[in-house]
Design the sequence.
């Protein structure tokens, strides 16, 4: 008869090694090596020759694009935003449906613009804050596996990390190189039912009129949302949810009836992909949405201030149904 | 560590100057960490925890105790810490293991002991779930990762005596659970207990 240790080991039998998983783990570790070398040796935002060259190159590209755009506008018929949206509605209605069945997940991947990460230094005792902050620019990839009940898993990976100023780097060195976000660092979060999405697209009507009425009702059921708030909800649904082709088409129809939306024609998203650009007014400025005209999928969103300065962007790089968390 | 090879401590020290050296630690211990994590959390999340363990270890390698030779207890301690954030996943995995039927028919049994282990598995898993977190973690790293008492003490930064008493307590509980009923009755009869 087996003793208690043998029974425990038998009960917790381990799966066999997966060489692909091992190499993936090794790759992430190597990224961390590179990041540390980069952090330790590269003065971040110092304007190197390369970055100056890159800046000049982009100005030249932008000027060229402006000339091409002006030329194109002069000779090509201009579609209104409303026409563009009705065209996208038609494309959306023919797109294949991607329902999340039980036991499957909607996998989506998003790349984000650089954002600020602040590390606050503490003195000896972890509770004593010194007042010194180290600021980095970081970029992240966010992957999500969404189940039909709104539960799921989100994995956030740091893909770029650099000090915002020389002073930040000096503070980091002086403090003994404390832990800061590094390239390859991952955070895995698990969410229960409705943890990843607070709405249920399957409950929304698929006719533009009733859909608009439903979208005007705020989450707490009191009062009515104004046009800008409804537009924000529509954009959120189009960009992050899994609406059926009929609902997706109706969402575009709803937008087509709003005023204040501008058509940008063909534009390039932050990852260099070409798409149809539309600008929506928001409370703090505007939001540019770039769609793939052939599928109606959202390629990217770009947030702009009222003076037109870009503040943040998200680029959507993948969306498909998979059979398990971790599958891509 | 094979004869003539540098100790983990020396490699980690060298990795402070040359980060790439840390890959030797990965090569030496990934399999141990992966098996331990997957046994406790299942395939997908265990795999992720194993990968995160090495990223966390690399980021905090300055804190690796110079007095220790092997990085194995330290890595398993980090993995256990990461698992605390996966308590729900562990419960789900354990519950799934309790429900899993034996894949073979009893008639095919070539190994009576394995069959007995399969039959008692759910009871054992249930008993382990009922333990305090401290007792369970110390026992599982001892049982599943084959650490010695001093290594478990190193992994959790607790005295060896505490490790010994926790493991003894858990083993006694499990032994009582596995004892045939007649043996327990006999034991009670001998001690005069009801």
Sequence:
């Amino acid at each position: 008869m087996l003793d208690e240790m043998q029974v425990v080991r038998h009960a917790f039998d381990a799966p066999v090694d997966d060489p692909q998983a091992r190499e993936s783990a090794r790759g992430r570790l190597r990224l961390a090596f590179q990041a540390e070398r980069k952090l330790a040796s590269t003065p971040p935002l110092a304007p190197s020759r390369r970055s100056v060259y890159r800046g000049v190159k982009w100005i030249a590209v932008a000027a060229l694009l402006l000339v091409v755009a002006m030329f194109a506008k002069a000779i090509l018929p201009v579609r209104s935003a409303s026409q563009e949206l009705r065209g996208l509605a038609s494309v959306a209605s023919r797109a294949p449906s991607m329902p999340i069945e039980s036991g499957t997940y909607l996998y989506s991947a998003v790349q984000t613009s650089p954002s600020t990460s602040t590390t606050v230094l503490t003195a000896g005792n972890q509770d004593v804050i010194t007042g010194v902050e180290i600021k980095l620019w970081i970029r992240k990839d966010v992957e999500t596996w969404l189940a039909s009940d709104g539960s799921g898993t989100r994995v956030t990976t740091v893909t770029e990390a650099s000090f915002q100023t020389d002073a930040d780097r000096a503070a980091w060195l002086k403090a003994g190189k404390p832990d800061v976000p590094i390239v390859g660092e991952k955070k895995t979060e698990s969410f229960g039912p409705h943890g990843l999405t607070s709405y249920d697209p399957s409950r929304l009507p698929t006719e533009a009129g009733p859909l608009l009425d439903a979208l005007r009702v705020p989450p707490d059921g009191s009062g009515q949302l104004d046009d800008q708030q409804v537009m924000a909800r529509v954009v959120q649904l189009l960009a992050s949810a899994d609406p059926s082709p009929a609902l997706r088409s109706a969402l575009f129809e709803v937008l087509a009836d709003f005023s204040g939306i501008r058509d940008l024609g063909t534009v390039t998203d932050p990852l260099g992909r070409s798409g149809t650009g539309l600008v929506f007014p928001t409370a703090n400025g505007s939001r540019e949405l770039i769609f793939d005209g052939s599928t109606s999928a959202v390629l990217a969103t770009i947030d702009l201030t009222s003076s037109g300065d870009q503040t943040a962007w998200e680029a959507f790089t993948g969306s498909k149904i998979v059979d398990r968390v971790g599958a891509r | 560590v094979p004869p003539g090879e540098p100790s983990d401590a020396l490699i980690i020290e060298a990795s402070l100057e040359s980060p790439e050296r840390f890959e030797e630690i990965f090569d030496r211990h990934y399999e141990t960490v992966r098996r331990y994590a997957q046994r406790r959390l299942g395939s997908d999340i265990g795999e992720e925890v194993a990968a995160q363990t090495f990223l966390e270890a690399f980021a905090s390698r300055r804190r690796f105790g110079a007095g220790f030779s092997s990085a194995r207890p330290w890595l398993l301690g980090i993995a256990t810490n990461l698992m605390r954030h996966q308590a729900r996943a562990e419960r789900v995995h354990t519950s799934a293991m309790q429900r899993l039927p034996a894949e073979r028919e009893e008639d095919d049994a070539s190994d009576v002991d394995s069959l007995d282990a399969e039959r008692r598995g759910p009871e054992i898993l249930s008993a382990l779930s009922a333990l305090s977190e401290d007792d369970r973690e110390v026992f599982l790293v001892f049982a599943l990762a084959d650490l010695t008492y001093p290594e478990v003490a190193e992994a959790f930064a607790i005295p060896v005596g505490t490790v010994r008493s926790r493991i003894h307590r858990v083993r006694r509980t499990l032994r009582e659970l596995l004892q045939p009923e007649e043996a327990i009755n006999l034991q009670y009869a001998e001690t005069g207990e009801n």
Notes: DSSP finds ten helices and no strands in chain B.
